[in-house]
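User:
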Amino acid sequence: MAVKQISIFVENKEGRIKKAIDTLARAGINIRALSIADTTKYGILRLIVSDNEKAIEALENDGFIVKENEVIVLAVPDEPNGLNSTLAIFDEKDINLEYLYAFVSSKVDEAIVAMRLENMEKAIEALKDSDAKILDENDIKEL
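Assistant: Predicted structure:
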């Protein structure tokens, strides 16, 4: 139950992120979640969008390097230790967390977190065993 995200490699120069977002807007793509990580030379803009194929095509046509991969999206309790209790599942199973980012939900009792883990299959199995609330692409559309 992984969700596909796109990663856009952008030069760390003025206007490059805006250009990527403009490209998506012109293509009619809705951004559901985003994260950016940067270095001195480039950044990686990670997005969960309404239409990956259309987004990738538009971005590549506009000169961007784009990669598609999978993340696990979870609804975690929006309370102290809500995220940490989920992260403990991975610690118990020795699963390395590569990165995570959060985004908003219309449900006030949940926080939504996208995670990329070293062993996605093992992570999904561990989450299912712990009754974690794993979201799919249809769930994200409803947020």
